[in-house]
Amino acid sequence: MKRSKTLYEEVYEEIKRDILLGKLKEGERLVSKRSIAEQFGVSVVTAENAIAQLIAEGYISAVQRSGYFIRYSGGGETETQPFSPGANPEPQDNTPLSGAAALFPFSVWARLMRTVIAEQDTRLLRPVGSKGVYELRSAISDYLYRCRNMRVPPENIVIGAGSEYMYNLIIQLLGRERSYAAENPCYDKTAKIYRLNKVKFTGIEMDEQGILADRLSESDADVVHISPAHHFPSGAVMPISRRSEIMKWIQEKDSRYIIEDDYDSEFRRTGLPVPAVYSMDNTGRVIYINTFSQTIAPSVRISYMCLPDSLMELWKEKMSFYSCPVSAFEQYTLAKFISEGYFERHINRIKKYVYKSLEAVTAAIASENVKIHEIGDGLHFTVTVSGDAAEFTEKAEACGMKIRRLSDYYITGGEEHKDDYVVSYANADEEKVSVLFGGK
Q1: Are 386 and 371 in contact (CB under 8 A)?
Q2: CA 436 from centre of chain
């Protein structure tokens, strides 16, 4: 099945082909973007997107006040045949950090893999217990104490294949007869998973400080799913006063639990990490979840949850028959990656990369038609678009950003946010951003 091409891809490929065949020669001036738009019968924005792609790949260059010039001599080359994928090709996912893959220390990871093979030998072929490899749980325990000031014994840590997998495990652990709630708005997969499990599920209104404790108390929720360190998609950071209110809610009934989703706490721009609610808990009813998909790569489907002592016996009783779905090979390698300090050094490199990108993106897109809301931590921010939202979205996505309406993340309501958008900027191409937004 053929992948359908966007208009800007078609324009880009036509111009690229003319360069490769020598019809457009090195040093020659390319016609203006408006001329390209007229020639191909497309919008100026589409022509800009095609030009940006050609610049990014080095076929042309932009000279200020002079236009675009061919910078590659391809005369005499034969025309390449388009790649025809096999059945059901899957599009690449534009998720956080997939654009920073070049920063990953592959040589280190490869060396650690070889060490794991030599040290573990046939133990890599043995079944893995329900909680995962002890070495990885121990490395995570040390990391949480060192970087998050959390005291979690390795015995209370469970390894899983991504946060979505963990949500399902928690529902099975706590039971489907309970009533579950989450912040409204929230990460859309969270809501989908709770609904797919056919549990009673509702959204609780929030303000700029996070979920509203009084609205939570008015609901019949037994379990609430929150991301207090950095909420997605609003970016809210829950202050200590609101955290204390949420802890009072959990203390009112023994049947209540908090699921604390700390999905990107490592990406704090300044200062120390915000303390976890898990560390404030004296009830034994807060479950902490984090993932390596955000900090290493989306394809690394390794996450973990920290269970309080009060749930460990229930885990043994109900869930110990499970085998950990993450391969022992990956777990031992990640354990070394963390314990030998490479993980923290990798995070520091990524933070420098993405925050440099953030500065370029915000400087370029800010205009009278695009209002950028307060920039906090993490890998996304929100904007209000009062002008041509379609043009803004097309430009931003052509630069590698992921754009979605804020209203898409509401469990109920959200109509008042029809002009608000969530911008995930970690994959932004700075050169394309400069070209596409620089002329505004």
Answers
A1: yes
A2: 24
The candidate with the shortest Cα–Cα distance to 319, out of 280, 284, 287, 283, is 287
Choose among 185, 198, 196, 269: nearest CA to 227: 185
Cβ atoms of residues 413 and 401 within 8 Å: no
Q: Please state the pTM of the whole predicted model.
A: 0.76
Return the DSSP state at 122: G
Amino acid letter for position 347: I
pLDDT tens column, 126-185? 889 999 999 999 999 999 999 888 999 999 999 999 899 999 999 999 999 999 999 999
Q: How far apart are CA 216 and CA 349, in angstroms?
A: 39
* Spatial contact of 342 and 108, defined as CB atoms under 8 Å apart: yes
Reported in sequence order, the residue ranges of 130-256 that DSSP labels E, i.e. its strands, are 157-160, 179-184, 200-207, 210-211, 223-226
Please state, in angstroms and as integers, the Cα–Cα distance from residue 77 to each residue in 16, 17, 22, 30, following that order: 12, 10, 8, 20
- Using alpha carbons only, give the angle 205, 208, 214 rounded to the nearest 5 degrees: 40
Taking residues 191-201, what's their average pLDDT? 94
Q: Which of 56, 50, 61 is nearest to 17 (CA)?
A: 50
- Domains annotated for the chain, with CATH where assigned, are 7-91 (1.10.10.10), 101-344 (3.40.640.10), 353-438 (3.90.1150.10)
Say if CB 112 and CB 337 are below 8 A apart.
Answer: yes
- For residue 266, pLDDT over 90 is answered with no
Report CA torsion sign: 413, 419, 423, 429. Answer: positive
* C-alpha distance from residue 100 to each of 16, 169, 333 (Å): 26, 31, 21
Output DSSP code: residue 283.
Answer: S
Pairing of strands 402-405, 370-372: unpaired
Q: What does the pLDDT look like over 212-221, one tens digit per residue?
A: 999 999 999 9
Asked if 165 and 186 touch (Cβ cutoff 8 Å), the reply is no
Q: At CA 318, angle to CA 315 and CA 319, rounded to 5?
A: 65
- Whether 309 and 169 have beta carbons less than 8 Å apart is answered as no
